[in-house]
## 1
Amino acid sequence: MESEYINRQFNYELQQQIGGTLPKGHIYCLGYPGTNLLSAGLLNLPIELNSNRLVKKASTDYKHPFDLQGLKDLPKAINEPIMIFESTKRDGSKVILVELQYKGSNYVVVMRLQHKGRGRNNALINDIRSIYPKDNVCGVFDWINSKDNLLIWVDKEKALNFISVQSTNLAGNGNEIQSSTYNIIKNFTNGK
């Protein structure tokens, strides 16, 4: 199956990057959006990630440093997300909450359409603009409860599990937030 090959290839290249043998500027090819991503509005275009961006995002100079090893199976995780949101920036980016974690915090992957190349070689891709562990779970609950309808796709089983696990991290009005969030997820319809 092609998706299994893409996942294995990504893991192989990721291990090269961790070991310092991946060429600088390498572009990871993460395949194409699956059904879940397509139903959230992503276009059926290649998903790519620049290895330089990955180094920058994982760096201790960045506000959410993480260990690259934790990104093993990223292509699979992206195509089997927990939830997908519109970006609060309203720039067309999609924010994808995945099951991969770093120190108990789920990763978010921010993806948007980007032109690649120039002239006749110009092509559109789904470019991973950012990736980091979302250590502020209240932010995710805010996205779900947003009056701006940021939530655009949800795997109900995974999302309800996420809420039950993460609600222990909420302080103060956690029960009220958890109840509201639970109801939104339970009643959400994908593709509306």
Note: The CA atoms of residues 26 and 160 lie 37 Å apart.
## 2
Amino acid sequence: MFPVAVIEDAAAAEVSLDPVRARLLAELAEPASATMLAARVGLPRQKVNYHLRALESHGLVELVEERRKGNVTERMMRATAASYVISPTALAAVQPDPARSPDRLSARWLLAVAGRLVRDVGLLITGAAKAQQRVATFALDGEVRFASAADRAAFAEELTAAVTTLVGKYHDESAEKGRPHRVVVAVHPSIPEES
């Protein structure tokens, strides 16, 4: 089971967004059969089986083992990931494009950049899985508390200068075998985490 999987297919996204199926995905962090799930979620086993088949057909759950119980074969299923992110490629015709409104101070532009990040990293993960390789990535995540809007603006200016200096130092347009990497730095107000 992966910690996170990216859903790139529109049909798989639709299947995963059904409330019953989303609940089954959550319940399948640990392997379970349709009978076990039916008892947990309060639905008939046949209905649970129906939803499991839909999830399985889109690669969101997988067969872990089959157990023989009398005349019945019990299928133990598990979610393919602990959590899922739906890529903007699932909505290809309307996926966000940061180039449409390149305002670095706009929250909507930041959202479009984040959407592109999810799309790109999702495609990289899919390609790397097929090639049985890892993806070279790096991320920082932190929090800073500003005393004032002026401090926030000064921080943004210094951060821009530092990143620009680093990019200038290491970017080599003439490196024939070099591979371009996208750098995304975002600053937004923190949302309190639910306990």
Note: Residues 117 and 184 are 8 Å apart (CA to CA).
